[in-house]
Amino acid sequence: MALSSSVYNAEPIPEAARAEVEALLASGDLFRYTAQADAPVSLLERDFAAFMGSRFALAVNSCSSAIFLSLRALGVAPGQEVLIPAFTFAAVPSAIVHAGARPVLVEVGENYRIDLEDFRAKLHAGTGAVVISHMRGHTSDMDAIMEMADALGVPVVEDAAHSLGTLWQGRKIGTIGRVGCLSFQSYKLVNGGEGGILITDDEDVFAQAVIMSGAYEHNWKKHPALTARFAAHQNALPLYNMRMNNLSAAVIRPQIAEIDRRVRQGRENHDHVAEALNSSPWIDVPPAMPKEQRAPDSLQFNLVGFTDAEARDFMDATAAAGVGVQIFGMAADNARAFWNWRFLGDTPDLPRTRAMLMRACDTRLPARLTRAELDAIAGAILAAAEAIKGEQRAFGT
């Protein structure tokens, strides 16, 4: 069966957003600080913090901005090292460069999670911060990471752009480090077109991030009451103007009520397709970690025993079947392949991550897909692998 719509199409925005959007359009009141209280952005921050179980939330224009503000608020110094997984999106090292720091890439294994031995070797007391990207929703061992970072007094920022709704030992991803950063870009679980949010329990980090996000003069008074903290930073911090506007918040906030349902359906979709793909000797879908309850809206798998030429043929075959599968290391100029981050200078030698990226495949599985559509995706992937590798199995070579 052919897919009824592209896997890149988002779910409709909930009806509850329409009346608020219409009111905003009629008033033209799109700036978050115009209202004295209960502006849509303020209400989003209140509701999202409550959903995540965090003391504070700051809505901004992107997850990248949230990461940048976190590093600045944590006091990461110019030129200081910030550890990140070598498997992440280019926006993450870009945010670190924007903050004046230096990204240090850590190896990632075949299960898409950070290599703890390489992490241990590169982490030291002078490290400014660690930014852990739970890339494509795959959670690294947060217990081990936090233990090592805490022992050296190094703050951890969670890039949870792909992990809204994921649990680690019952705790929501994004609430384990000092700061959590999440995304509302269109391909994420909650769709605002663009947008991000920073969550934390740290009063001073929050106060600094609020001011630097663009709460000029005394607009910080429209945030949770931390008067002494805010006043201490008044006019002492630069303003980067990374605010979210009311129209974006009006679209995003009604989707908070949809998160649990989307997580449940996304996990069911992922596990259904993963079970089918793991029946092939040519495909491996890494399992969740024992302490992790995933919230996937996409699926990643590794090709087993493929040459480079065969891997490229596999991409072509799935594309011809109407199923969008990309191999991270082979898709042209892929922003998740670390050797394409030429703005960092010399490409580091990261053989484990490179080998993984050259065989790691990615396909979207949004929660709205039907079982028939999921079976069509799985069938196309299995057929492509069998067409390329099946002859070897038939002749025992």
Largest sheet, spatial ordering of strands: 1-9-8-5-4-2-3
Q: Helix count?
A: 13
Q: Which sequence of SSEs, written as H and E, runs from N to C?
A: HHEHEHEHEHEEEEEHHHHEEEHEHEH
Please report the first level of CATH classification, the CATH class of the largest domain: Alpha Beta
Low-confidence stretches: none
- Determine the strand fraction and express it as a percent band: 5-15%
DSSP summary, beta strand count: 14
CATH superfamily of the largest domain: Type I PLP-dependent aspartate aminotransferase-like (Major domain)
Q: Tell me about the largest β-sheet.
A: 7 strands, mixed
Whole-number total of structural domains: 2
Instruction: Evaluate the radius of gyration.
Output: 22 Å
CATH fold group of the largest domain: Aspartate Aminotransferase, domain 2
Shape: globular
Question: Would you tell me the structural class of the helices and strands?
Answer: alpha/beta
Question: Keywords for this structure?
Answer:
397 residues; alpha/beta; Aspartate Aminotransferase, domain 2; Aspartate Aminotransferase, domain 1; 2 domains; seven-stranded mixed sheet; four-stranded antiparallel sheet; 13 helices; 14 strands; globular
Question: What features would you describe in this structure?
Answer:
The protein is α/β, with parallel strands linked by helices and 397 residues long. It has 2 domains: 16-257, Type I PLP-dependent aspartate aminotransferase-like (Major domain) (Aspartate Aminotransferase, domain 2, 3-Layer(aba) Sandwich), CATH 3.40.640; 259-394, Aspartate Aminotransferase, domain 1, CATH 3.90.1150.10. 38% of the residues lie in helices and 14% in strands. It contains 13 helices and 14 strands. It has helices at residues 16-27, 40-52, 63-73, 91-98, 116-122, 142-152, 203-214, 227-233, 246-252, 259-277, 308-320, 351-357, 371-394; strands at residues 56-60, 81-85, 102-106, 129-133, 156-159, 167-168, 171-172, 179-183, 196-200, 283-284, 292-293, 298-303, 326-327, 360-364. The strands form 3 sheets. Strands 1-9-8-5-4-2-3 form a 7-stranded mixed β-sheet, with helices on both faces. Strands 10-12-14-13 form a 4-stranded antiparallel β-sheet. Helix 11 packs antiparallel against helix 13 (371-394). The model has no long low-confidence stretch (mean pLDDT 95).
